[in-house]
Amino acid sequence: MAGSSITASSGSSPAAAQSSSTSFSSRVGSTAAKVGKHIVKHTGTGIVCAVAYFDPGNWGVDLQAGSQFGYKLLFIVLLAGLIAVFMQCLASRLGVVTGLDLASHCRLLLHDRPKHTRFWRWAVLYPLYVLSETAIVATDLAELLGSAIALTLMFPSLPLYAGVILTALDVLLLLGMRDPLGGAPVKPFEFLIAGLVFTVLICMGVIVSKASVHWGDAFDGFIPSSAVVSPGGLYTAIGILGATVMPHSLFLGSALATQSASRRRTNSAWESTPTLGEKTRSFMTNVKAGFSKDSLVGGAKRVFQMGRVAEEERPPKNHAEHENHDLGFVRRHLTHGIVDMVVSLLGLALVVNALIVILASAVFFFGANGGPGNGPATLFDAYDLLVGKLGKAAATLFALALLAAGQSSSIVATLAGQVISEGFIRWKVSPVLRRLLTRSLGLIPSVIIAAALGKAGVSALLVISQVVLSIVLPFIVFPLLYLCSSKEIMSVKTAISGHGTAHKKNAASQSSSSFSTSSGEGPPESWSELDVSDPQRWQSQTTLAGLATGRALRTVDVEAAEEIVDYSMGKISMVFGWSMWLLIVLANGYAIVTLALGEDA
After folding, report:
1. By the 8 A CB rule, do 498 and 507 touch?
2. Across the strands, what pairs with 492?
3. What is the pLDDT of residues 161-208, one digit of tens each?
4. What is the pTM of this model?
5. Are 199 and 398 in contact (CB under 8 A)?
6. What is the pLDDT of residues 379-416, one digit of tens each?
7. Domains, the chain, with CATH or none
8. Bridge partners (DSSP) listed for residue 23
């Protein structure tokens, strides 16, 4: 009996183990699927915004930094990346909390001031709008020139002016996708940008792996050194700071942060899984319908749509009339948005910029014998130098990465232009028309200069575009910091449902009043001791309880049955933010003066 029992037990053990293993694998697969869906649902905005931080303008200054100073300026790349993360997270926070982008906030702040209305409108708001549009044109100009240079590197027989003209054809990419700013951005657009971003990252990774990198010295470059404060090094360091933080990305980041991730997922075409036959029939039906007269006319109207933004019955004229997002929305999206932005900027943008500096250091600064290399490198001579030192394949990857960076940055700049025009002047333009107008402003002078002056003229034009962005940046960062510092603008109200004592005790356990009190009473022993019959006394007690427990301060208005949660910047963030603003002003001022004196290296 005992033997048979043992035998049976031992015989059932493998089946039980197999069942347990299958159950564990099933749980792991289910968990991985949930995590994957969660990541896809709450990411995308950070990748789109990260594109702006390694555009062709960054490539030019990063190549100069690495070829002149080796790995020594990697510390400045890291510092610029951290400043960009801080500013971009502020823009994301502004959008999540208030439900408005930075441009719309500027209109609410300046368009209908109670005193001196015309002065604020014409002397501050509209000039700020013009500066913002100028930044878009300058950004698109840099992307245009970078993409044109990449095409001429890949196809040496292609004239430079022809490469400039060909870059305008990327507007066709916008014809095949819906407007990502329409309230529920489609995933295919985010996948397109992500594909271009990872193309840049992979290409740069392959190239750097072929170079003879002194990795010990490279990691030492992230530590501050005397090269940063040397005359030439200081100018180049300021150039890195000026080329990294992009004004248009702040506008776009705040706009994308206002959108609901749940709506984005529900309305995204990638979520549906039709069969192959259904896809084929749907495609043929759309093709047949697309050639009809009504369809062509309607499609043309949609593509080239332009006009005033549809207003509400009574749109808010100031921040006092505007209602922020509800507390539930903020809690669902704020942390995800910040994490998405930090991971994308540090894991993608910062890595790409660092790889460009490392590549320039390894190939151009250090020669074959470990001595100084060929001096400062530009986008034009980088290809030839890479061909000679790493081979044609590596040089082609470099050009391909530059082209992907230019194209992705240009598409993102077009979307930022939409945000600016709709926010500042309530004027809506379709993405295709907006791209054509913006590209035309940069295309005409670029073609003329490329045809007349060649590479020298294009290089000068690229420098001018970066100087323009440096001038505009402080004017855009100032209202962002001001808005995020305001408790009135960054506060969220939430109603306290129910009027019973028990519910008020529960609300009190989660909140505390943010105003000070002169009462000398100590905090209550327990929440049951709170006297909710006297609102003033209850607020005083919750203030002391909140201070005693060290919780985040909140305002609870018992009479109005609502709680106010403040999401404005804290004192440390305010000091850091305004210090960075002052640093940007001084750095850009120094760079502009140095450039005007002809002392740029």
Report:
1. no
2. 565
3. 788 778 767 665 655 555 666 655 556 777 878 888 888 889 888 888
4. 0.77
5. no
6. 777 777 788 778 888 888 888 888 888 888 888 888 88
7. 52-268+305-490+570-596 (1.20.1740), 493-566 (no CATH)
8. none
